[in-house]
Amino acid sequence: MALIDENDPVQSVFAPVLGLAAWSVRKGQGSMLTFEFGNPSLHVREPIEPQVTRSTKVVARLKSRVVRPIGEWYLWIYCCNWRCIARGREIAHSESTDKRIHSAARELDGQRLQSVNVDPINGTSCFAFDLGAVLETWPYEDEDLDEQWSLQRRSGYIFAYRKDGRYAWSAPDVRSDQEVWLPLPLGKNDADT
Q1: Bridge partners, 14 (sequence order)
Q2: Where are the domains of the chain?
Q3: Average pLDDT over residues 48-62
Q4: For 134-188, how does the pLDDT look when each residue is reduced to its tens digit (9 = 90+)?
């Protein structure tokens, strides 16, 4: 297993990302947000022959080659509430219209990640950027232990943060039922430049 400082896991996993500009920030499915960080490389998905009957549109997409740039690091915000604040006002939140969520993605695109602060007691996080944007996350109110966000080094491990203040550090091929969830140490949950 790749090394992580269990006394300060947030700082150790984000240390190589702090100071890097976010790029290709996008709205995903629903209110999910995705960020690329680090040097770009091309990801090529070769054509796939569908094994089951699908719509004509889906079959055509699967049978095509997809080439897209990806970063060394991938931050994915999902299964949580969030809001983006810039210039003293809220740009968008997780329940905003698609248009406003796209505006938040444009606002965050190109900004350098300065710090990540995590409060494991409340299950909240705050991502601060160099041009003043802030992205805050907090748990959904349901009872599920949803992951709120994850940071993946494309060549390796994934750090995932859950609403109960626990984290998992695992290889990308580990099944979700085999992940080990550890509590974040109290008082050591910030990554700052």
Answers
A1: none
A2: 9-39+71-192
A3: 82
A4: 999 999 987 678 899 999 998 789 999 999 999 999 988 888 788 889 999 886 5
Mean pLDDT of 70-95: 96
SS3 135: strand
pLDDT for res 16:
95
| H or E segment and range at residue 59 | helix 56-62
Instruction: Tell me the residue ranges of DSSP E strands in the chain.
Output: 23-27, 33-37, 41-45, 66-70, 73-77, 81-86, 89-93, 113-119, 124-129, 134-138, 147-153, 158-162, 166-170, 182-183, 190-192
Instruction: Say how far apart CA 147 and CA 83 lie, in whole Å.
Output: 17
- Cα–Cα distance for residue pair 102/171, rounded to 1 Å: 31
Res. 130: pLDDT tops 70: yes
Pairwise CA distance, residues 83 & 112, whole Å:
18
Query: Using CB atoms within 10 A of its CB, is residue 63 exposed (0-12), middle (13-18) or buried (19+)?
Result: exposed
Predicted pLDDT of residue 126: 97
Looking up tokens 């505006």 gives 103
User: Which residues are CB-neighbours of 11 under 8 A, at least 6 positions away?
Assistant: 5, 188, 190, 191, 192
Pick the closest to residue 127 from 174, 193, 178 (CA basis): 193
Q: What does the pLDDT read at residue 161?
A: 95
Enter the tokens of residue 31. 């209110």
